[in-house]
């Protein structure tokens, strides 16, 4: 009895959480499509004209999908070996947040907007694709970004200080009557400028202001180069370490062999086989 | 008889498809110029004032060019060793698409716009230039981009998710009355912002919206660094392998040895010394 | 007596200037928070609506904070071993500039805007965090930027010349009636365009102007790549030297040896084997 | 007699063309300042308000400067060993173009705008600074850019084709009534978008147009990474080749020694002294 129950949970787990059995894969594909559809519905519903005509249908469709997702969430809770740990995991939280807004919308109108959080569930796609390749690439990216974080932080901190000073200076120069209504607004302008976004909703008019702006832009020129440099360097590192540095020749003990190397390029001795990733 | 026909096809092929005989080169140069002219005509025709005055002339000129291109297309079909394979090749399809719109324009007005697709035919220019140099550079670029694809895809996927969340959040914060008329529109705004294009046709007004926008921009700052890093790293790789691949092992005749390699990494045989660049 | 005074100064110094004693750390944390608050107050005060309602309170709060900072400044002067040197140091000047504006505001209205300079004091945060890590990263960044300076200067000089020529050309083409009111204004436009900021407050209208603008943009495309390239290369260098500089020659005790070095490049003595990272 | 004349020309040459004698340096500094002033005058003169008040003065000042520059030009012609070669050299042409507009302005009003070409003369500054350092850096930049040219050309060609297709598609989608008045205009828009300048003078309104624009932007995201990658890689190459690859150890004949290396890092033998740049 418990035996079969354990079996049932076991198999349910394989279907719901994993994607390497045909059933599991089918389950995940259906899931992804329904997520995609639900997100699309939320977006369409936000378009006034569409809402006016199909609002009622979209509303029902949303409840149906929410019901399905709720059922799925419960199934996950039940079949998970450690339900509580799943509930606190990243995907556990996302899965919950993906259904709550609909219920909330009963009390707070408009809160169903938050359903777009379902987009995050789409991240499961990588597990379905089961392209170890993509996972590894993603890992390289992550490693590079993690390695760059401290530098990026120092950089961001400097940029923020810079932006505050430029913004205030601009506020003093141009003044409220020319759109720079307050220091925070001017800082917003400074960010828009330094990041080279340049909406143009606020832009300097006085010669002095334009001179300062020009300096800020040319500064932003050099500044935008910094994060790129940081990430590029770290990425090159991550890539190299990912590709080569792991293999050593047992004879001359030198490293730096390519992935497709069978013999040491320094002493010609045979290399140890490449361990699978 | 068939003999001479074969000869004729043979020589026609050399003239039309290849560019290493004087005749063939002349043919391609004439072709490129007429393509250039035809594309220019389509563009000029789209300018109202020009269309009003020279519309009739342009119309005739277009038919003449189309006739020429049609003849050329038939000639290609006839002279090609495997007509059907040519017809399905990239250039074969482009060549066809480059003449169809004119005939379509008899039934659907305005469809001659699509003639701009002729621009694609210009890509033949590289074959005419016959600058192996350019071809090789293009190859390096392609290799680098192909190698970066998986990373770029992972990156794009993350950006899209990000853009959806930021866009929706902005829609909730700023609301329709401030230009963020719907979630898709807000997502469009988020893309315009993250890519640092910043049209300014839609821009945040409320302090909260501007705060979020500032965060998005500073985020975009770091984000724009990622593809650059990816491509740069891959390009460095492609370049190195391109500069290296000139060495061949005399035993297994395989290439791709590093500059500091003394022994073939595939068969372990000694490599020929590196010729000075 | 003097003895105890010396002691007092000694301990005061440790509390005020250093951050490795509990007291010192507490002091700095309190300081940072009050700086943060004071900067925030200045910003809020610049918002018309807030100024109208809470202006009086903000005014008082500012005076309180200024009094505190003044006391702190004096304490620093007194406890510093060489008061005069501190006064002329970067932070010494910033600390002074951080209190002066308030007093000035008694004579010149609005000068309290300059209090935002207090933001610079926030840079002390890195000393408090005492994250040698961050300091080191900052050092790498600085080294890279310092190394890139000459190239960057050459680059900037070229860009400025370019911008002057493009701007003037545009002024000649578009003329004052289309927003390009003067050469300086056109140069401002050229900078806005080349840096890809693109406010759109001034933009070409005539075909000729748009053609020139398009060329300028595509040029800016390549141009923006240059500083990035410079910084990236220098950063890679700085990073490598940072990772390498750990090896010291036991004979001449000099550092900066490459990873593949077996002998000291300065004195030719054998190097200690590279410790694994 | 001829003797002394030759002497005179000799010394005049040293003063006018070179900058390593005190007199020569003084001459060049004065020259640079007068160029700077003349360029500034042209710019100021283009500002309506200033022109109205000081137009007459600026006009006279310009003639004075032009007279000086004309005299200088003649002096250069006379003292140059090969006058004709100087006249055809880059600086020779620029020097001429720097005075012609003033005379032209007698016949064609407004042509004095072209005087801004004098800015090019400023490039002499590097020779005055005589910072071999800067010259070398500039050389590295040039080398990198020259090496990247073929790749950049292939890249530009692809971008132009892309821009033509996107522009035309946009023209078909949005149509003249929404600002996309003609295909050339739409191509201009496509360039503004792909280069992430984003003026916003023309921007898509229809959902389809915005979708296409979003794709174009995200595409531009990746595209902007390409030139950066190209330049960065070439720059790294140029830098390395500039710094190391020039020296070879006479014992083990291996390369890649740092500039500050005295002994071979591979075999410990003494290195040949570094030849001065």
UniProtKB/TrEMBL annotation, chains A, B, C, D:
Entry's localization field: Membrane
Transmembrane segments: 30-50, 96-117, 152-173, 211-233
Major site of localization recorded for this protein: membrane
Keyword Acetylation: no
Keyword list, A-Z: Ion channel, Ion transport, Membrane, Potassium, Potassium channel, Potassium transport, Transmembrane, Transmembrane helix, Transport, Voltage-gated channel
Listed GO biological process terms: action potential
One cellular component (GO) term of this entry: voltage-gated potassium channel complex
Pfam families with a match to the protein in the record: Ion_trans
InterPro entries, alphabetized: Ion_trans_dom, VG_K_chnl, Volt_channel_dom_sf
Gene3D superfamilies given in the database record: 1.10.287.70, Voltage-gated potassium channels. Chain C
Limits of the Ion transport domain: 26-241
UniProt keyword annotation of Transmembrane present: yes
Membrane topology: Multi-pass membrane protein
Protein name: Ion transporter
Source organism of the structure: Immundisolibacter cernigliae
